[in-house]
Design a protein that fits this description.
heterodimer; A: alpha+beta; five-stranded antiparallel beta sheet; 24% helix; globular; B: 225 residues; mainly alpha; MetI-like fold; 10 helices
């Protein structure tokens, strides 16, 4: 069990972290840059001192301000992977990897270094120097240097941010392999939700020095604690609504901003709530909504902007309201689009063409994909 | 070249080398401390150490004379131990060290500060103590800056005139260094000797500059790659 409860006053905000992890689990700390996630890792590793609180890993107390305990970083022996790898430029790859094995006998050191090099497929680089190997190799050497010390706790600080995207995909797969072979606990710090999803089943969303929500991937996406979490995790379409009718499974809400009625899951007791949906979850079809067989949550709209991506396109849709907007000031406040949707390229039938500016479309908000919070 | 020319040169080299060695022993830990600490008073300490760089050498020499002289407790203690400080080679070494050590500390400090903090952090989490890190990471990555600081310090110590003269006079064979010998030769109207000694000093200075440039260029090349 790893338990962290620390606070520290920083220049821009105060950091207050409370974390509990069971042994062998892995957690991703996700948040915008400068939210204090790296600082949290540094405090766990002993590179930075919290103002108050405690850090306990297993039976060992690393830090406890009430008892005056502060174990030095060199005695904590946690694994730490730095953002830019922090390889020693004056040492060969072999010596870099052996750096943490200072107290091992020579033969044991040699065996350990070579077995980890084999495992991470960096054999042959023994006598090279860090500046002369590729970014992916540097990353692997850094990982080897950390793993060779058999840490109980592995801390990864934005480990992939310096790699180009192709190498990154390969390395992520490798880290998953390592993860599966590694029995210890892992904490990953990243600003990318995708990265967090790939590597960790549990995710903590951080902002302004605080953890807003900890949960499984599913919980973070479908039951965000508040608007900030929804926003940080990529729910681009966020609106407020008021319940006007409750049935068994579903409820109807009035969305003032869009002037629409929407059917949502009947899971929250509050009458005033917020809802959101991710761009990729919206279903967008060409043409008008066929009035006769209109499914629930189906609205007519017009494309006001498109952004192409390799696998599809982002479309920005403005709803075409039949009813004129009652409140004049409302229309003034509205953004220049209502929904942002992601449409994969091979969606729909044969003869599918990408959306163009000005196209009329039919937009469906699937009930099961709606995230709700109060 | 006569023996009287070489004696001041030998003395100057000996004094400057000794001062540089003392500077290394005292200055490197100070540079390391200044380069690593987050202590708020570090800039004040740095300024105190840098005072000899801006103080006129004679003023510095005057204060050293006050501190080391017979009437101060340091001076009287040294006297009792049978090793008087003023007007001796020891005094000249102290003067040369005080005058030149800021050059070393400043250069070494910036070399140490130039080491990415991640490297030091990596060494810490890999189980190395601060003392160990100093030798296994700091020195190997900052040695060129440290070396060029030593060369600068050596050059400054070699060329000191005012402070050495104030503290230790110009006793032939004991404290008569090159710059003082040049001054004496000029006063005595011996232009030939002054000319020769000045040439030797100028040559040494040029050599020092070349050495520093070579060191700096290698540092630059290293960060390029």
């Amino acid at each position: 069990m790893i338990e962290v409860r620390i606070s520290k006053t920083l220049e821009l905000f105060s950091l207050q972290i409370h974390l509990k992890l069971s042994e062998g689990s892995s957690l991703a700390l996700v948040g915008p840059s400068g939210c204090g996630k790296s600082m949290t890792l540094r405090m766990i590793a002993g590179l930075e001192q919290p103002d108050e609180g405690y850090i306990k890993v297993g039976d060992t107390t690393f830090f406890d301000s009430s008892e005056g305990i502060d174990v030095s970083a060199y005695k904590r022996r946690v694994g730490y992977l730095f953002q830019n790898y922090a390889l020693f430029p004056h040492l060969t790859i072999e010596k870099n990897i052996a750096f943490g094995l200072n107290h091992c006998p020579r033969s044991e050191k040699h065996a350990k270094v070579h077995s980890i090099m084999e495992r991470l497929r960096i054999k042959g680089l023994e006598k090279r120097y860090p500046p002369y190997i590729s970014g992916g190799q540097q990353q692997r050497v850094a990982l080897a240097r950390t793993l060779v010390t058999d840490p109980e706790l592995l801390l990864l600080d934005e480990p992939f941010s310096a790699l180009d995207s192709q190498v990154k995909k390969k390395m992520e797969k490798e880290v998953i392999d390592v993860r599966n072979a590694f029995s210890g606990t892992m904490i990953l710090v990243t600003h990318s939700l995708e990265e967090a999803f790939r590597l960790c089943p549990n995710i903590a969303v951080m902002d302004n020095g605080k953890i807003i929500q900890i949960g499984t991937q599913e919980e973070i996406i479908h039951q965000p604690a508040d608007r900030t979490v929804a926003r940080l995790t990529g729910t681009e379409n966020i609106f407020d609504g008021r319940i006007i009718e409750r049935r068994d499974e579903v409820a109807r809400i009035w969305v003032e901003e869009l002037q629409i009625k929407l059917t949502i899951p009947n899971t929250l007791k509050q009458d005033n709530l917020s809802w959101g949906i991710r761009p990729a979850q919206l279903i967008v079809k060409q043409g008008h909504c066929a009035r006769a067989q209109t499914p629930e949550n189906c609205f007519s709209g017009q494309i006001v902007q498109t952004i192409p991506t390799p696998d599809g396109q982002f479309v920005f849709i403005q709803l075409v309201n039949q009813a004129p907007i009652s409140n004049a000031s409302m229309s003034h406040q509205r953004r220049d689009y209502d929904f942002q949707a992601y449409v994969p390229i091979n969606s729909g039938k044969r003869g599918h063409r990408p959306f163009q500016l000005g196209d009329l479309c039919c937009i469906i908000v699937p009930i099961s994909a709606i995230a709700l919070w109060s | 070249m006569s023996i009287t020319d070489l004696m001041p040169l030998y003395l100057s080299l000996r004094l400057a080398l000794t001062a540089t060695f003392i500077g290394l022993l005292i200055g490197l830990p100070i540079a390391w401390f200044l380069g690593n600490t987050r202590w708020k008073g570090r800039e004040v300490l740095d300024s105190l150490i840098s005072i000899p760089m801006v103080l006129p050498p004679t003023v510095l020499g005057y204060y050293l004379l006050v501190i080391l002289g017979r009437n101060s407790w340091i001076g009287s203690l040294a006297e009792e131990l049978g090793a008087p400080l003023v007007f001796t080679t020891r005094g000249a070494i102290i003067a040369a060290t005080v005058v030149s050590i800021p050059f070393f500390i400043k250069t070494a400090r910036s070399a140490i500060e130039g080491i990415p903090s991640d490297l030091l952090d990596a060494a810490r989490v890999l189980g190395r103590t601060e003392f160990n890190i100093f030798f296994s990471v700091v020195i190997p990555n900052a040695w060129k800056g440290i070396a060029s600081g030593l060369v600068l310090m050596f050059a400054r110590a070699l060329g000191d005139f005012g402070t050495t003269l104030m503290v230790s006079g110009g006793i032939p064979g004991e404290t008569l260094t090159m710059p003082i010998a040049i001054y004496n030769a000029m006063l005595a109207g011996d232009q030939g000797t002054a000319n020769r000694l000045a040439l030797i000093m100028a040559g040494t200075a040029l050599l020092v500059l070349i050495l520093i440039n070579v060191l700096n260029r290698q540092v630059g090349r290293r960060s390029d790659r």
